[in-house]
Amino acid sequence: MVDATTSWTGAERTYYPRIRRMWQQIWDVENVNVDHEHEIVCLGQRYDPQVAVEGDDVDSQTVASDGLSLLWPREFLEDVGSRVWLTYRKNFPLIPKAKNGPSTVSISGVFRGSGIEFNGFTTDVGWGCMIRTAQSLLANALMLLRFGRGWRRDNVEDEKDVIRLFADEPDAPLSLHNFVRHGEAHCGKRPGEWFGPSAAASSIKALCEAHCDNMRVYISAGSDVYENEMRHVAVDAAGRFRPTLILLGIRLGIDAVNPVYWDTLREFLAFPQAVGIAGGRPSSSHYFFGYQHDSLFYLDPHQWQPALRLDGLDSEALESVHTTRIRSIHLSEMDPSMLVGFLVRDEGDWQAWKQGIMEGTTRKIVTVSKEPPQLNARSSVSLGSDDEESGFIDVAHDTTRHEEEEEEEEEEGDVAEGEEELPVMVNSSSAILGGSIGDEYTPVIVDDNASSIDEPVNLSFHDASSSSYTPQPDDEWEMMKRTFSKD
């Protein structure tokens, strides 16, 4: 079947998901199980899409007539219901407004009953969705570390010590208040401003270093994972490998994720070490935890609830951080800006994760190297920041390099027959302009639907391995100009 979304314009890709979300808020129908052929995957666990029915004499026609075929497998629902779901909250202790910061009063907040407060924020409605999805990713990593992947909610007291870390109070170590405090101090994010994946990852790392003795955090250099840096984080002074949360902050396109990366996104969620994906732009960040064929399952943070209080973590409050409501979007609707998380518990887990990355389709996006390259005069090109709604464009590395290691070298600037030029993948410090290092990389320019950039851009050059600027050789400068010029 042909996917009509592959022929959409940039505007259609931008506005269709927004219209769809508005419609869902007005008419939020239950998502039913209509795909009985493709397996269901939830953070590395796989489930048969068929609903188990007791009795040997029940045929498929009876199942369909009883409506059971529209139900989700019980084991899958129990798994989803055990994931932590953190959402907008209201009436929490005041987060003071910054000088010249965003307004504390919003129409959406007033309509949702959060009241009017001019001195600061008592709700994160309208601006806190990326923080909430980052909290969800972190909370599920901590739950998996403490209870294991097979844990299911049969005793709410089990999880109280983890959930209290995320209470909506300044004294809670991993609270919204402390995410905002770190964002303001270190990421240039004033209270009330939307976080991007970069600010979210920075907050997770800083707060875990301060408050989580049982887990460390490694943030990749874009899509590049360097083993020496990872080990510096994960291995303690006694040489013991400590559980480590790996965070990949990546952007896989301009308006949408190109279909060439869909298999890779699915594979991310199928890893045994997967803890989910947090991502999106303002008003559209979700926490993705699984998939079925071309649909991604997610937890939506845009539902507001009363604040979680440290002195009120009763069974009702704990129930509010879980749901069995199944929500999904098509892969074509996913925003390309995201934070991908993996939890590696020990040395064996780390080696298995590395092997999985290097052998699967994930190598289209993620590169695992022993140490950062010495780029010298080579430069990465980037525009803007991954936190900006407009995003930024980088030169993507060529994913066919693994298959061509034993082939003859092509002339510089030529593309081998059958070689694929991939859409832009952002925030990779391995992206090399105008050449290659050891024939590792090939410059590729892409947008979703064209082979050139339509508008002039201001290029800022920097050496990824140095804070100083280095002039480009003339031949590389000419190649850069040809690459970025109009057709």
UniProtKB/TrEMBL annotation:
<feature type="compositionally biased region" description="Acidic residues">
    <location>
        <begin position="404"/>
        <end position="421"/>
    </location>
</feature>
<dbReference type="GO" id="GO:0035973">
    <property type="term" value="P:aggrephagy"/>
</dbReference>
<dbReference type="InterPro" id="IPR046792">
    <property type="entry name" value="Peptidase_C54_cat"/>
</dbReference>
<dbReference type="InterPro" id="IPR005078">
    <property type="entry name" value="Peptidase_C54"/>
</dbReference>
<feature type="region of interest" description="Disordered">
    <location>
        <begin position="459"/>
        <end position="487"/>
    </location>
</feature>
<keyword id="KW-0653">Protein transport</keyword>
<protein>
    <recommendedName>
        <fullName>Cysteine protease</fullName>
        <ecNumber>3.4.22.-</ecNumber>
    </recommendedName>
</protein>
<dbReference type="GO" id="GO:0000045">
    <property type="term" value="P:autophagosome assembly"/>
</dbReference>
<dbReference type="GO" id="GO:0005634">
    <property type="term" value="C:nucleus"/>
</dbReference>
<keyword id="KW-0539">Nucleus</keyword>
<dbReference type="GO" id="GO:0000423">
    <property type="term" value="P:mitophagy"/>
</dbReference>
<dbReference type="GO" id="GO:0004197">
    <property type="term" value="F:cysteine-type endopeptidase activity"/>
</dbReference>
<keyword id="KW-0378">Hydrolase</keyword>
<keyword id="KW-0813">Transport</keyword>
<comment type="similarity">
    <text>Belongs to the peptidase C54 family.</text>
</comment>
<dbReference type="GO" id="GO:0015031">
    <property type="term" value="P:protein transport"/>
</dbReference>
<comment type="function">
    <text>Required for selective autophagic degradation of the nucleus (nucleophagy) as well as for mitophagy which contributes to regulate mitochondrial quantity and quality by eliminating the mitochondria to a basal level to fulfill cellular energy requirements and preventing excess ROS production.</text>
</comment>
<keyword id="KW-0645">Protease</keyword>
<feature type="region of interest" description="Disordered">
    <location>
        <begin position="398"/>
        <end position="421"/>
    </location>
</feature>
<keyword id="KW-0072">Autophagy</keyword>
<dbReference type="GO" id="GO:0034727">
    <property type="term" value="P:piecemeal microautophagy of the nucleus"/>
</dbReference>
<feature type="compositionally biased region" description="Basic and acidic residues">
    <location>
        <begin position="478"/>
        <end position="487"/>
    </location>
</feature>
<keyword id="KW-0963">Cytoplasm</keyword>
<keyword id="KW-0788">Thiol protease</keyword>
<dbReference type="GO" id="GO:0000407">
    <property type="term" value="C:phagophore assembly site"/>
</dbReference>
<dbReference type="GO" id="GO:0019786">
    <property type="term" value="F:protein-phosphatidylethanolamide deconjugating activity"/>
</dbReference>
<dbReference type="GO" id="GO:0016485">
    <property type="term" value="P:protein processing"/>
</dbReference>
<feature type="domain" description="Peptidase C54 catalytic">
    <location>
        <begin position="74"/>
        <end position="355"/>
    </location>
</feature>
<dbReference type="Pfam" id="PF03416">
    <property type="entry name" value="Peptidase_C54"/>
</dbReference>
<dbReference type="InterPro" id="IPR038765">
    <property type="entry name" value="Papain-like_cys_pep_sf"/>
</dbReference>
